[in-house]
Design goal:
Blueprint: H1 2-48, H2 75-80, H3 83-111
Helix pairs in contact: 1-3
C-alpha cells in the first residue's frame, strides 16, 4: 500500500509540474503571437508609407521627429537580444536607410550622377 501511495504522490507531482509548464508555455506563446502581430503591423505600415511618422517601439531610440539617425548597437549586444528587439532594430534601420536614400537621390538629381564629394 505504501508503494501505491508513493506512486500516486509521484504522479500528482508530475501532473502539477506539467500543468505549471503548460501555463508558462501558453504565456510564452501568447507573447510571441503579440510580438508577431506587432511586427506584421510595423511591416505593413512601412510598406504603405516608409516615411510614416508613427513612433517606433519603445526602447528603439528617439522617435521619427528626431533629426538624428539612430545609433547601432554593438554586435555582441545584438547576438544576445531577444527576437522582438532585433525586429525593432531592423525596422528602425530600414526607416533610417530610407531617409539616407531620399537625401542621396535628391543630391544625385541636383548634382548629376556624382556629387561634389567624389
Amino acid at each position: 500500500m505504501q508503494s501505491w501511495d508513493e506512486s500516486l504522490s509521484h504522479a500528482r507531482s508530475a501532473c502539477e509540474a506539467w500543468r505549471k509548464e503548460s501555463v508558462l508555455s501558453r504565456g510564452r506563446a501568447e507573447a510571441a503571437l503579440r510580438e508577431r502581430e506587432e511586427a506584421v503591423a510595423r511591416l505593413r505600415e512601412m510598406r504603405e508609407d516608409p516615411s510614416s511618422s508613427s513612433s517606433p517601439p519603445s526602447g528603439s531610440g528617439p522617435g521619427p521627429a528626431s533629426p538624428y539617425l539612430h545609433a547601432v548597437r554593438k554586435v555582441s549586444e545584438l547576438r544576445s537580444a531577444p527576437l522582438g528587439v532585433l525586429k525593432a532594430v531592423e525596422w528602425q534601420l530600414k526607416k533610417d536607410l530610407y531617409e539616407v536614400e531620399k537625401v542621396r537621390d535628391a543630391r544625385s538629381r541636383s548634382c548629376g550622377e556624382f556629387g561634389s564629394d567624389f
